[in-house]
Amino acid sequence: MHTLPRLLPLILVIGTQLLEPMAQSTDSSVSSSHAYLAQQALKDIGDRAAPISGVDDGCVRYSKTCDWMGKFPGKTKLVHMNIPGTHDTATWNYSDATQASLIRYTGPIPPARMYRCQEHSILQSLNEGIRMFDLRVAYNPGNDTLGFHHSQALLAPTTRVEDVFFALYKWLDSHPTEAILASIKYEGGSGTPEDSAFYEKLYNVLNSPLAQKYWVQTNGTLGTLGEARGKLTLLRRFSWDKLPVGLEKRFDIPLTPDVWTDNGKNIELVYNAPLKQVAYIEDFYDASADIAKGSGTAAYIDAKFNATTAHLTQAATKNPDQLYINFASAAYISDTPEMTPQIFALGVDTTQGMNQRLLPWLQSHKGQRFGIILLDFYDAVPNLVEAVIGL
Ligand SMILES: *[C@@H]1O[C@H](CO)[C@@H](O)[C@H](O)[C@H]1NC(C)=O
Ligand SMILES: *[C@@H]1O[C@H](CO)[C@@H](O)[C@H](O)[C@H]1NC(C)=O
Ligand SMILES: *[C@@H]1O[C@H](CO)[C@@H](O)[C@H](O)[C@H]1NC(C)=O
Ligand SMILES: *[C@@H]1O[C@H](CO)[C@@H](O)[C@H](O)[C@H]1NC(C)=O
């Protein structure tokens, strides 16, 4: 277990009472019992994370994508890279069965297909080359710990955000050339309180001694791949306004909701005014803004494909030193026939979805800068992730 040394400090914090008296000893049987205890604590956290993180199935099947960032020089700027991501990452196991098992918390809500955007777990997607996650956070039932939601859908009742971060730290220990970008957003439709205690808890999770080792500590600007390797970089899609005074530490890229135009095809978001750093974002999630109801599946997918490729073309040709983020994903639209995130991504019958159409588009633009591309159901079209990266 070569991942233990970096994680040990936290486990010692967790088990301070138990471990401190023994930590003085040099007796090897004591240190081997520490290692065993640490392993068990790590397993316990991993089990609690699993409904959202999934389990790490190793790299054997994914030799091309598992450590793809290792081939890029450390001096590469993150804004120059093509980074595949997943939209609404934590929904990957949200089926009608999962929903039924959580109904005592949520009450009756619309079918799972409206909320579900992924089907591979976070750890599997890391091995498959995904490096950016869209995490929607709100209170777990009881309003005490922080967990994962997509609108009204609670995704796991007892998994805490810090459990999932732990799983990511462990993965990074095994993949030290890789960098993960994490977008965190308070999930509004969840019906949970967005109070100062929520932000204080989130602040404390992100500022724990362990988190400080694993999150890039630079504030307000993206650096190089070398600086981000082995770490998480925080893209902050929430405001710290409700934080109690005194909690001043910042190490994030502020993409705050007040400047994130709703349903924008090319949002121009200044995240660092002194350095004139801008994020250009395509977040046209609701294609019904352009398309009359009843126009059919192909028309919706066309509108989304146009918005995505128009933005990717800009990423390839303009503002080479600025950040580009493209949501190639889409939200549910109530129509006949209905449009689910899966139908947008993969089409239906003979109508191709975003992912089938993006694959040749990306391949024919190989070598160009696209920036970050967030996908739904990325795994269902083989080689799509490779085409984003440019492998
Ligand atoms: C995925 O959901 C199913 C159905 O609710 C559940 O049985 C299974 O344990 C879940 N998988 C994980 C990794 O939590
Ligand atoms: C959690 O917050 C919700 C929304 O404000 C409230 O309805 C619920 O009663 C709270 N639950 C607990 C255990 O405080
Ligand atoms: C962090 O960076 C942001 C964006 O550049 C800036 O507005 C803020 O003042 C910085 N905060 C601290 C504590 O340095
Ligand atoms: C998408 O772009 C194509 C080609 O430019 C155009 O023919 C079509 O009308 C556009 N569709 C929508 C829905 O914008």
From TrEMBL:
Signal peptide, first to last residue: 1-23
Keyword Membrane found: no
InterPro entries attached to this UniProt entry: PI-PLC_domain (IPR051057), PLC-like_Pdiesterase_TIM-brl (IPR017946)
CDD domains: PI-PLCc_BcPLC_like
GO terms under biological process: lipid metabolic process
GO molecular function: phosphoric diester hydrolase activity
Keywords: Signal
Cross-referenced SUPFAM superfamilies: PLC-like phosphodiesterases
Protein name per Swiss-Prot or TrEMBL: PLC-like phosphodiesterase
Phylogenetic placement of the source organism: Eukaryota, Fungi, Dikarya, Basidiomycota, Agaricomycotina
